[in-house]
Specification:
Number of strands: 8
CATH class: Alpha Beta
Order of helices and strands: EEEHHEHHEHEHEHEHH
Helix content: 25-40%
Distance between the termini: 33 Å
Structural class: alpha/beta
Number of domains: 1
CATH architecture: 3-Layer(aba) Sandwich
Length: 270
């Protein structure tokens, strides 16, 4: 999610952290994951530069809460092709994890992506037991709904996101509706989440979007009350989308922490 006046350039902003091997990442583009139509939906897989043939690697799926059509209308490009998505996928790859970015007609297509990755794990060089999800901003509720429905996922990174409404509140649902994001987790509670899946939550202390941190803080409190495996990083001076908008050491440190979390939860003995 971004301010309307940033729509002409926000799609071109990569993550502020760069690592030396990012240009050497191997990208397998336009792998069909949804067959049976005239124009199959496809995904791009970002592999570590030195991945060996036959290796079975962990993966992280970059979750979109919108659709290609909605993204093109709002920002002029798809979520899969945004510089933020492609650079995060490259960062995952150089960290030893396959990054998966996909096209979608419906927000719920992410479930098909994950099923395809599991069912074709050998062909794709993936470890079907070590798949996580990543989401930011208004895409986070879609990722939460995926976690609620798919108990085999290994972890999730949730960046400065709208989370869940609490009893009597419709603040998150109303905001996401206005922005055109899917919210399949509406009306559910944190109790629907698997209690043992590690979560990484990055908070932007100066986030200006209405009620975002109110919902995020409530989610964190509820997660701690359930004693969930939770990593919370508060970038106290950070703005929304600080990972692409703030060229600062503090922003880069949070990105690096998210990558280390993915390594720790997805790679045995990283």
């Amino acid at each position: 999610m971004a301010d309307a006046n940033a729509a002409d350039h926000i799609t071109k902003k990569p993550v502020v952290l760069t690592l030396p091997a990012m240009p050497d990442v191997v990208v397998r583009r336009d792998v069909a994951y949804q067959l049976g139509t005239d124009t199959p939906s496809t995904m791009d897989l970002y592999y570590p530069p030195l991945a060996t043939t036959g290796a079975r690697l962990p993966a992280v799926v970059f979750v979109s809460g919108g659709t290609d059509a909605g993204m093109k209308k709002a920002l002029g490009c798809t979520f899969r092709t945004m510089a933020s998505t492609t650079s995060w996928a490259r960062l995952a790859a150089v960290s030893g994890i396959v990054g998966i970015a996909y096209s979608n007609r419906e927000a719920a297509d992410v479930h098909v992506v994950i099923r395809h990755a599991r069912h074709h794990a050998e062909q794709l060089g993936l470890d079907s037991s070590r798949i996580g999800v990543w989401a930011s901003s208004g895409n986070v509720p879609m990722a939460l709904s995926v976690l609620m429905k798919d108990r085999e996922l290994a972890c999730a990174v949730l960046m400065y996101g709208y989370m869940l409404d609490w009893p009597g509140s419709t603040l998150v649902a109303d905001t996401l509706k206005n922005w055109g994001f899917a919210n399949p987790a509406a009306g559910t509670s944190i109790d629907k989440l698997p209690a043992a899946v590690p979560l990484f939550i990055a908070r932007a202390g100066l986030d200006h979007f209405p009620h975002l941190n109110t919902a995020l803080d409530k989610f964190v409190a509820d997660a701690l009350a359930r004693n969930m495996p939770l990593t919370v990083v508060n970038h106290a001076t950070g703005r929304h989308a600080f990972d692409i908008l703030e060229d600062t050491d503090a922003a880069r440190a949070v990105v690096a922490q998210a990558l280390r979390f993915l390594q720790r939860t997805l790679i045995p003995n990283p």
